[in-house]
Amino acid sequence: MPMTDSADYDPVCGMQVHDRRWVTTYRGREYVFCSEGCLALFRRDPALRLSHKGERARYDLVIVGGGPAGLTAAVYASLQHLHALLLARDLGGQAVDTSRIKNYMGYDLVTGPELLGRFRDQLLAQKYIEHRLDEVLSVARVADGFALQTRHGCRYEAPAVIIATGMHRRRLDVPGERRLLRRGVSYRLVHELERYQGQAVAVVGGGNSGIEAATALSRLGCRVTLISSGPLTGDAGDIARVEAAENTVVLTDHEVAAIEGEEQVNGLRVQPRGGGRERFLDVSAVFIEIGYLPNTDCVAPLVDRNRDGEIETGRDCSASIPGLFAAGDVTNGFGKRIIIAAGEGARAALAAGVFVRARQSGTASVQGPA
């Protein structure tokens, strides 16, 4: 159950509510809701929704993760009339921090928050399924499917589960990185852009994310040093633009040795990968964009994973155990893109629907990566 009594939060799902379209009063107190669906659930049993006791419930399908894959899976679960639940720490995932999304169907250019806002509206207003803001700590096999335990002490069971937990940012693991986090070290450019306008900054990472960050900072008038451990590997056009920017220096085949500063970042030390003399760069911020690691801790003991820790899946997004599916960046699927994650979310939900209906009719078949 959502562990908050704040009037600004939905007592059913735990989401922060920014408007007052759905409101009710219970025992002299007013409550607001994210959607008509959550309001209806509250009215069925207000005391239960406010009890803060660990919820126990069974569903046809539980979806874990609130990024593009999880949200799309939820919509397609709704279309199949499955009794489904979406569990996520937040709605949006890593895509919320993406400043520019290019060539998503229907958009030439859209920001992450704008696109995920559309996803969220579709889930809450048009294709509602139950959802909770909660973290899944473990997924275990039980006699009739799976049991999921959450940080809020809830337990949910279902014959089918979709893991769409995405990835988290990889760290450099160098001196000064953790100590100076949020004091000049950042993994989320979107929230830090204006703060460093016109200053000398460094971006670490030669892929699409690093090049995008360097370009955005360059446009703000920052003096940018882009550091990559190898050649730049992003989009060719974006590479050409960042290399041509007058206020940007590109250091390829270099690694960060340490991030310097007491209360705030004041520089970093870099050195060539093949060995050589260290250099000190006088910068006030370091933006780390070196990729991601899959979020598989809650399900790791159950599934087959590749050497990168990604869940291995078949053509229907099935994992190595019947009833368990995975979609999006957490899988070994080719192409870490929002549009691909959304497509996999739809495929996983359709496959899970087939599995659930087969179980209900007693015709379930063997499933696994193929």
Distinct helical segment count: 7
What name is given to the CATH topology of the largest domain? FAD/NAD(P)-binding domain
Straight-line distance between termini: 38 Å
Cα-based radius of gyration, to the nearest Å: 23 Å
Decide which structural class fits the backbone.
alpha/beta
Provide the succession of SSEs.
Answer: EEHHEEHEEEHEEEEEEEEHEHEEEEEEEH
| CA-based shape | globular
- CATH class categorisation of the largest domain: Alpha Beta
The CATH architecture classification of the largest domain is 3-Layer(bba) Sandwich
Q: How would you describe this protein?
A:
This protein has 370 residues and is an alpha/beta fold. It has three domains: 1-53, no CATH class; 54-168 and 294-361, FAD/NAD(P)-binding domain; 185-290, 3-Layer(bba) Sandwich (FAD/NAD(P)-binding domain). Helices cover 23% and strands 27% of the residues. The protein has helices at residues 36-44, 46-49, 68-79, 112-126, 208-219, 236-244, 338-361, and strands spanning 22-26, 29-33, 56-58, 61-64, 84-88, 101-102, 109-110, 130-133, 136-142, 145-150, 155-158, 160-163, 167-169, 185-186, 200-204, 223-227, 248-251, 254-261, 265-272, 279-281, 285-288, 292-294, 324-326. The strands form seven sheets. Strands 8-5-4-12-23 form a five-stranded parallel sheet, with helices on one face. Strands 14-21-15-16-17 form a five-stranded parallel sheet, with helices on one face. The relative contact order is 0.14. The mean pLDDT is 89.
